[in-house]
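dumping the sequnces here before i forget
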Amino acid sequence: MPEGIGGPSFVHLLSPKWQSVRSRATKKQTGAAGRAIVLGIVGIVFWGFVFTVLFRLLRYFRGIPEIGPLLAGKLLGLILVSFFGMLLLSNVIAALSTFFLAKDLDLLVSGPVDWLRLYLAKVTETCAYSSWMVVLMAIPMFLAYGVAYDGGFVFLFVVLSMFIPFLILPSVIGSALTLLLINIFPARRTKDILSVIAVLAGGGIVLLFRLMRPEQLARPEGFRSLIEFVSVLRAPTSPWLPSEWVQTGIMSWLREEPDALPLYLLWSTAAAFLVLGALLHRALYAKGFTKAQESGERWVRESAFSALFARMLSPLGIVRRELVLKEVRLFFRDTTQWSQLILLAVLVVVYIFNIKYLPLGGEGVTFFVANLIPFLNLVLAGFVLASIAARFIFPGVSLEGRTMWLLRSSPLAMRDLLWSKFWVGTLPLLFFALGLVVITGMLMHVSQFIMAVSILTITMMTFAIAGLAVGFGTLFPRFGTENAAQIPTSFGGLLFMMAAIVLIGAVITLEARPVFSYLAAESFGTPRDPGEMLLGFGLSAALCVAATIVPIRIAKTRLEMLEV
Amino acid sequence: MIQLKGLTKRYGTFTAVNSLDLSVPRGELFGFLGPNGAGKTTTLRMIAGILRPTAGTVHIGGVDVSADPMKAKAILGFIPDRPFIYDKLTGAEFLRFVAGIYSQNGKVIEHRGHELLTLFDLDQWRDELVESYSHGMRQKLIIASAFIHKPDVIVVDEPMVGLDPKAARILKDLFREYTRRGHTIMMSTHTLEVAETLCDRIGIIQGGTIRALGTMSELRAGSASGEDGLEQIFLKLTGENAAREFVDVLDA
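..and the predicted 3d for all of it:
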């Protein structure tokens, strides 16, 4: 035992993780430089965008006496509350893997590893997995606050000293919650329950946030008096939330009225929670780990509905029917998959809610404007479709990775496999897209022409986006990943989103001119040009057909050449 | 039934399989032996059409796997060494799915599936999701799936790993009976006793090339003493380093 009586050190326990990250980063792969450049550019553009928007807003706030700093603080508080919610949820999910399902646990639990060091190593791992994205988002945000309020170089250390305990707290709480849950339910059940809880909670936060209509804060005229407005701004969101402490601490520093209490609260609470978490771990981990090895039995009897569904698919032929049945079964039996539909429903409600409150019916809103905005609404609908395709269609081929031996050694045409992936994803997406466009169109009282354009365009875009998702998903597969939710965040997923955005932009640009001409003719009586309309919509349709077929063709060739 | 000509597979500068020539006739149970990393799995995966050869050809039932993969794979069943299958399907659904991709379904498949699951003691778990199966149960399910479409040729990579003694015995009897009926099986294994008692012919591969090939009596005749068992022949051909000075190693 080279590390002495206490067993391997905390750093030694974490060393395989660090070494894996380092070897992944230094591994020489073809196209690695290209990937790094693309990721770098996207990252800088994202950071630049967040920084610029926030910086301009904060400069504007800074110019408002009295209320300005309150508004800046309120905004920071809102962002930090969202961060805290996200961190808590992702820590609960991550802790399930790191503490109970990770492949290295058999080795660690069977070895002479001190319980406290194991706990600290796993909390650190959980914290790293859950927090990196929030940290990346927080960098431009804090930078904007620092620059806008002349925080100076020391501001960097102020932020670090506040943000580190802010990250530790949800990791400790999340790990403790998972530990308690796992002691009540078996691991597989807990995973299912957590997925649903996480999605419901995430959806709930988004919904609540939206229904509160935070944009009203930026419109003081909505309040009965200035005093009421200021009192709303001054009131802390919740004095018990760590996000409030970070907000108070940072804003007090930026207002040049440094206050050490928030810093003290953050660190002392984090330390106390870490001790309590460790004690809970000592009391419950061994029992929980044993329970986590149990797998809940899951019997599946074929229902009358699934038998009927299988019969309905008979015209597809044996191979395609079996492929479709397999896709549908795998989707609805995987809680991590179908539970995402709840989030999707929330997204739709928020989307429709936003459309409903668009001021399109007021005075001064002409027929032209009232129809142009619904046309531009197609861009937003396209983004929604692209993100759904990234989550549900893009991972399709990657998820076959571990069973590719079966598909490649059997007489299954890769065309059939891609066909099933495409249609099983596209048909529900199309129904969803049409529903979204028709409902929002009706809410905005669009003309028949715009409604027809919307339906036609969204149909074409759905096929094209699904084609791109299948294509990019095959060209950039993540065969090693079992969790479908991680696949869209890969480099290939990023490229797919970029391609989809370019496609949406190109389609709308091509159709913009004929739509503009039509609306101008309706509003101002300018002459109509059928040729222009034919050209615009024709090119747009040709682009969508190409974006549907070409990626799938390339994907087919790629799959046929694939070696697994 | 299986014909390999000049079969070669290179990964960059490393040659995993080097110009392999081999013919396995109809009705033969062929054993493929070799140390870890010798090229067994790569060869079997090329026969199954999962890997593409760098050079050479694979013919199954007279059909070139590269030229007409669909026709060749239609008469082939493959059993991999690692039992990765769809976790969210039940055992019965998985068998139905595999039969489906060989364009087979209906009552015959249902009946055959039931018989295969019963043979491997899986029938009581037929409606349970595969995610709750043990390693051995998954292996048995994959073996059952390779028989569901009654292929002419079965290619098996390490079939005995994870099987309990009863299942191993059933598998050996099943392989024997299947080849007696005119089907062909090519399997790799590290269980020399299985190869010695079960296989009609044995090929020993090392460094991507075949070092010895023949029936057990031919292999014995080729060895120095002429009376060696398969273990001695294997160790002589593949290097006896594995069995050398344990004392040095344990004292290190």
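Chain B is about 40% helix and 25% strand.
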